[in-house]
From TrEMBL:
Zn(2+) binds at H118, H122, H128. It comes from Pelotomaculum propionicicum. GO terms for biological process: rRNA processing. It is found in: Cytoplasm. Its EC number is 3.1.-.-. This is Endoribonuclease YbeY. PANTHER family: ENDORIBONUCLEASE YBEY, CHLOROPLASTIC. GO terms for cellular component: cytoplasm. SUPFAM superfamilies: Metalloproteases ('zincins'), catalytic domain. GO terms for molecular function: metalloendopeptidase activity; RNA endonuclease activity; zinc ion binding. Single strand-specific metallo-endoribonuclease involved in late-stage 70S ribosome quality control and in maturation of the 3' terminus of the 16S rRNA. Binds 1 zinc ion.
Length: 151
């Protein structure tokens, strides 16, 4: 499964080890949800200002957030190669990940892995708006994080 990584921020160091780790996390999230392995996902690392603008533009929420998912499988099909499945983009605020890791008392690695899994599951249609949906999504998140000893 191709995981494309684009780092658009400079506040938090993103090295090859982190990129490879998060690619593995995204792949495991797809597998846990029973999704095909050849799907493409894009991870985009941004700062609070950038994600704030996206949140305002696409959700009408005038504040930064930690993660946004932009699914490509929603709406009308796009003409092209039927074999290629592009799931979409997971946009993560690296500043929010750092703050939340400190606030929750766990590692940055655990927090960024959680946000990656959370975003990928949203691309696959998981949601947490209803209590029953939230339980299913949280169980999948914990299942994936356990594979990396990050529960």
């Amino acid at each position: 499964m191709p995981v494309l990584v684009n780092n658009l921020q400079e506040e938090v160091t993103v090295d090859d080890e982190l990129t490879e780790f998060l690619s593995g996390v995204a792949s495991k999230a797809l597998a846990a949800a029973g999704y095909r392995e050849d799907a493409e996902i894009s991870l985009v690392f941004v700062d609070d200002e950038y994600i704030h603008e996206l949140n305002l533009q696409y959700r009408g929420v005038d504040s930064p957030t930690d993660v946004l998912s932009f699914a490509m499988l929603e709406g009308e099909p796009v003409a092209g190669d039927e074999e290629e499945v592009i799931l979409g983009d997971v946009v993560i605020s690296m500043q929010a990940a750092q703050r939340q890791a400190a606030g929750y008392g766990h590692s940055f690695r655990r927090e960024i892995a959680y946000l990656t899994v959370h975003g990928v599951l949203h691309l696959l249609g998981f949601d947490h708006g209803q209590e029953d949906e939230q339980k299913i999504m949280r169980a999948k998140e914990e299942e994936v994080l356990a594979c990396f000893d990050l529960t």
